[in-house]
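pasting input
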Amino acid sequence: MQRDTRQRRAIRKAFREAGHPLSPQELLELAQEHVESLGIATVYRNLRSLQEEGWLEAVELPGEPARYEVAGKGHHHHFHCRDCDRVYEVEGCPGNLKDVTPKGFKLERHEFVLYGLCDACAA
Amino acid sequence: MQRDTRQRRAIRKAFREAGHPLSPQELLELAQEHVESLGIATVYRNLRSLQEEGWLEAVELPGEPARYEVAGKGHHHHFHCRDCDRVYEVEGCPGNLKDVTPKGFKLERHEFVLYGLCDACAA
DNA sequence: GTCGTTGCAAAGCGTTTGCAGCCTA
DNA sequence: TAGGCTGCAAACGCTTTGCAACGAC
């Protein structure tokens, strides 16, 4: 059974306050503001268990290490700013997937990533 | 200046014959059929130089190591079979991207990945 | 007190690099 | 023959694991 440790509380808090997907390293730094001694191994272990528990979801972007976000937001995709390197959630979905799927293939899910500049960096 | 070695010839040949994106490890195994002594470091060095030369393009899928395919195929996306783990090219594009892009964000490019079963594995 | 959790250090895994010898042009 | 290329082994960065001490319940 899952225990309520200082470390786990700090990690959950960091996610609640972040508002965008976090990498393990970002998470370590944020959570260390509350638990200085926190180690990276604990971060990875909690990322895994919070994911298994259904509290977190992995955000996997092509060509880079996974980030994580609080689960339960419904279907959405992500926008990756090439300048600040931050990842944003975007609502909606282009649809039209059936037309693109090759004949005989069984489509089960899809990922969709936008790249460019976020509003702050575009200004 | 680029030299025409047995190793490089074997690597190019493997790509021409494969017909789908190759991972470095797959490529090593295929190219070793022609040059037994081929080492993985040489594979990675050639993947990079062939990419810089514009002959190859990286295919980056979320959450896994990059694969590579011969360049110059125009805009397309990929389908990843969860059963045989192979990656297929798919033509076409869902479009409708403007509607999904948040206000103030500047969209420059996008990636799109389909997951499911390929025709062989669905049967 | 039990046993899940933690921090550290070591191990893994895919990729890159240093180096001495090789081979193409 | 010059200098790019190769194979090997060591180094890398990120992630996972083994282990003894810790601490929530």
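fyi The CA atoms of residues 10 and 31 of chain A lie 5 Å apart.
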